[in-house]
Write a structure and sequence with these properties.
- The structure is a single chain.
- This protein has 598 residues and is mainly α.
- It is built from 21 helices and no strands.
- It has helices at residues 2-27, 50-83, 88-113, 118-153, 161-195, 221-243, 250-275, 280-303, 313-320, 323-341, 347-371, 373-378, 394-415, 418-439, 446-466, 471-494, 496-502, 507-510, 512-537, 542-565, 568-596.
- The longest helix has 36 residues, at 118-153.
Length: 598
C-alpha cells in the first residue's frame, strides 16, 4: 500500500503542474507550437523555438503522468492480490484513471488536429479535471485509514465541541459537493469563454463596464454569470471553511482552509487576467489555482463521512428532486440539441438549457413526492424518502418544488427562449396534474399516458436551438414515450407487492405478471421501428441506423426472455438494460451528427 500512496500523491502533484503548464500553453499562444501529434514538426524532439518547446514540455509532462498512473494501477493490482479484497476498490479507481489519461491523450491529438476548436479545448479541460478528481479520490482513499485515526484522536477541545463537531460532520458532504459541482461548472464556463475569445468582454473588475449589473445580451451574459457564480462560490467555500474549523478530523480542517485559500487566490488571479489583458503568468496562475481549489474540494468530498444512509438536510432536499431520474432525462436533451443544430451548439446554450431542465424536472419530482407521501409511507422501496422519513416537512417540500419550477421557467425565458420554458412548464403540469393526481391511483395505463412528461426534455432541447418544433423532435418524443412502459413496468414487476399494499393499480398488480410481460414485449417491438423512423426524418446516417437496429434487437431479446420466464430476475435485467439502451441510443444520435456530419 505504501507504493500506491506515494505514487498516487505524486500523480496528483504532477497533474496540478500539468494543468498549470496547460494554462501557460494557452496563455502564450503555444497551442499549435507543435502543429502535428504525437510528433512535433515531424520530429521526436522539437525545434528550439519558444512555442514548440512550451507545447512539447506539456506533452512530455503528460506522458510522465501517464507512466506514473500506470505504475500506480499496477501497484494497486498487486496490493489487491496480496492484501485482500478490501483494496479492489483502489485497483479499479487506478485503472479508471489509466483509461482517462489515455482518452485525454487522444483528445489532445484531436485538439491539435482541429486547430484548437473551442469545444474540444473545453472538453479537453473537462476530461483533465475529471482525471484529477479520480487521482485525488485515489490518493485520499489510499491514505484515509491513518488519516481518519489521526483526525479522530485530535478533535478540537471545548465545552461545546461535541455539538460543533456534529454540525461540521453533517455539513461536510453537502457543502463540499455543492462547491465542487459549482467549481467544475465555473471552470468549464471559463474555458469556453477563453476558447471563444470572450475573456475580456468586460475590461474592468470587479465592476462590469462600470456597473454591478451591465446590459445583458448573448455576448455579455456568459461573462456576467461567470463572475456572479465565482462570487457566490467564494462566499460558499469560505463559509464552509469556517464551519469545518471544528471538524474532528484534522485533515478535513486543513484541506478546507486550503480550498478557501486557493479559491481566494484564484479570484485574485482572475481579476489579474482582466486588469493585465491576459498576461500569461496571470492566466497560468488562474488555471493552476482553479485546479488546486477543485482538487481540495474533491478531496473533501472523498473524506466526507456520513453516519446515516439518508444524509443531512441538503441531501434530503436533493433527494426530493430524484437526481438519478433527472440525469436520465437530461441525457436525451443534448443529443436533441445536436440534431437540431446540425453540430454541437454553443456550450453556453447547452449549459443554460440543462440548468433550466434540472430545475423544472426537480420541481416536478418534488411536488410529486409531496402528493404521494401517503403512498411512499406504505411502500418498502420508498419509505426512506425524505417526506415519509420526516427529514423534510411536507409544506417545505411543496414550497421547494414550486420555487424550483418558477426559477426554472424564469431561467429558461431569460437565457434560452419562451417556447422551451413553456414546454418545460407543461412537463411539470402534466406530470403533477395528469399523471400524479388523475392517473396513478385510478388506472393501470397510468405510466403509458404519464410517460409523455418524461419525453418533453427532447422537445425543450430542440426548441432551445430552433425556437420551434419539427417532425424529428416529435419522433424523439415518441421514442421516449414508447420506451417508458417497458422500462417502468419491468421495475414494477419487482415491486408488485409494494404497489398492491399501497393500493396503486400498476400493470403487474391490476393485470398480472403474464399480461404485463406480454405488453412489455409488444411495446418493445413497436419501439424498434419508431427509432428507425428517425433515421430518414432526422437525416441521420449509418452509425445511428446500425446502433438503433442493434440496440433494439437486444432490447427485444430481453423482452422475449421476460415473456417466457416471467421472473423478477428477467424483469430487472430488462430494466437495467433499458437505461443503457436509452443512453446509448441518444448518444448515437449525437455521434452520428458530430462524427459523420450527416
Amino acid at each position: 500500500m505504501t507504493a500506491v500512496r506515494r505514487l498516487s500523491a505524486l500523480t496528483t502533484g504532477l497533474t496540478l503542474a500539468l494543468l498549470t503548464l496547460g494554462g501557460a500553453v494557452r496563455a502564450t499562444g503555444s497551442g499549435l507550437g507543435c502543429p502535428d501529434w504525437p510528433t512535433c514538426h515531424g520530429r521526436l524532439l522539437p525545434p528550439l523555438e519558444f512555442h514548440a518547446v512550451v507545447e512539447y514540455s506539456h506533452r512530455m509532462l503528460a506522458a510522465l503522468v501517464g507512466l506514473i498512473i500506470l505504475s500506480t494501477a499496477i501497484a494497486a493490482t498487486v496490493a489487491a492480490r496480496r492484501d485482500g479484497p478490501q483494496f479492489r476498490g483502489l485497483r479499479t479507481t487506478a485503472w479508471v484513471a489509466v483509461a482517462l489519461v489515455v482518452a485525454q491523450g487522444a483528445l489532445g491529438g484531436a485538439v491539435v488536429a482541429r486547430e484548437l476548436d473551442p469545444l474540444l479545448v473545453t472538453l479537453h479541460l473537462a476530461l483533465a479535471m475529471t482525471f484529477l478528481a479520480v487521482v485525488v479520490a485515489l490518493t485520499v482513499r489510499s491514505w484515509e485509514a491513518p488519516a481518519a485515526q489521526a483526525g479522530s484522536a485530535e478533535g478540537p477541545s471545548g465545552g461545546d465541541a461535541s455539538e460543533a463537531e456534529a454540525k461540521a460532520v453533517r455539513v461536510l458532504k453537502p457543502m463540499a459537493l455543492a462547491a465542487a459541482a459549482g467549481t467544475f461548472f465555473l471552470m468549464m464556463a471559463g474555458a469556453w469563454m477563453r476558447g471563444s475569445g470572450r475573456s475580456l468582454v468586460f475590461r474592468d473588475w470587479p465592476l462590469m463596464d462600470g456597473r454591478v449589473i451591465p446590459p445583458l445580451n448573448s455576448a455579455t451574459l456568459p461573462a456576467f454569470v461567470h463572475r456572479v457564480l465565482a462570487a457566490l462560490l467564494l462566499a460558499h467555500v469560505v463559509a464552509m471553511a469556517v464551519l469545518l474549523r471544528r471538524h474532528p478530523r484534522r485533515a478535513v480542517r486543513v484541506v478546507s482552509v486550503l480550498a478557501a485559500a486557493a479559491f481566494v487566490a484564484q479570484v485574485i488571479a482572475g481579476a489579474g487576467n482582466v486588469l493585465t489583458d491576459l498576461e500569461p503568468a496571470s492566466v497560468a496562475a488562474h488555471v493552476g489555482l482553479a485546479a488546486a481549489s477543485w482538487a481540495c474540494l474533491v478531496a473533501l468530498v472523498a473524506m466526507a463521512r456520513e453516519t446515516t444512509s439518508s444524509g443531512g438536510r441538503a441531501a434530503a432536499y436533493l433527494q426530493l428532486t430524484k437526481p438519478r431520474i433527472v440525469v436520465l432525462l437530461l441525457i436525451t436533451t443534448v443529443p436533441a440539441m445536436v440534431l437540431a443544430a446540425g453540430r454541437m451548439p454553443s456550450l453556453w446554450l447547452v449549459a443554460a438549457t440543462l440548468a433550466g431542465g434540472m430545475l423544472t424536472a426537480g420541481s416536478a419530482n418534488s411536488i410529486n413526492q409531496f402528493l404521494e407521501r401517503d403512498i411512499d409511507r406504505k411502500m418498502q422501496r420508498t419509505r426512506r424518502r425524505p417526506l415519509p422519513d420526516h427529514r423534510v416537512a411536507p409544506r417545505n417540500a411543496l414550497i421547494f418544488g414550486i420555487v424550483l419550477g418558477v426559477a426554472g421557467f424564469a431561467w429558461l425565458v431569460l437565457t434560452v427562449n419562451l417556447l422551451s420554458a413553456l414546454l418545460a412548464a407543461s412537463a411539470i403540469g402534466f406530470y403533477v396534474g395528469v399523471y400524479t393526481l388523475l392517473l396513478k391511483r385510478s388506472t393501470p395505463q397510468n405510466i403509458v399516458i404519464g410517460g409523455a412528461a418524461g419525453a418533453v426534455p427532447v422537445l425543450v432541447g430542440w426548441a432551445a436551438v430552433k425556437g420551434s418544433l419539427a417532425p424529428a423532435a416529435w419522433i424523439m418524443f415518441a421514442i421516449i414515450f414508447v420506451w417508458t412502459p417497458p422500462h417502468f413496468w419491468a421495475l414494477a414487476m419487482k415491486y408488485r407487492d409494494d404497489y398492491a399494499a399501497a393500493g396503486v393499480p400498476m400493470m403487474p398488480v391490476a393485470r398480472g405478471v403474464e399480461s404485463t410481460s406480454r405488453q412489455i414485449l409488444t411495446y418493445t417491438v413497436v419501439l424498434v421501428p419508431v427509432t428507425l423512423l428517425l433515421k430518414p426524418v432526422g437525416s441521420l446516417g449509418l452509425l445511428y441506423g446500425v446502433a438503433a437496429a442493434g440496440l433494439g434487437a437486444v432490447f427485444v431479446l430481453f423482452a422475449v426472455r421476460l415473456w417466457r420466464e416471467q421472473t423478477v430476475e428477467a424483469a430487472m435485467k430488462l430494466f437495467r438494460y433499458s437505461i443503457s439502451y436509452l443512453a446509448l441510443l441518444f448518444a448515437s444520435i449525437a455521434a452520428d451528427r458530430l462524427l459523420l456530419g450527416t
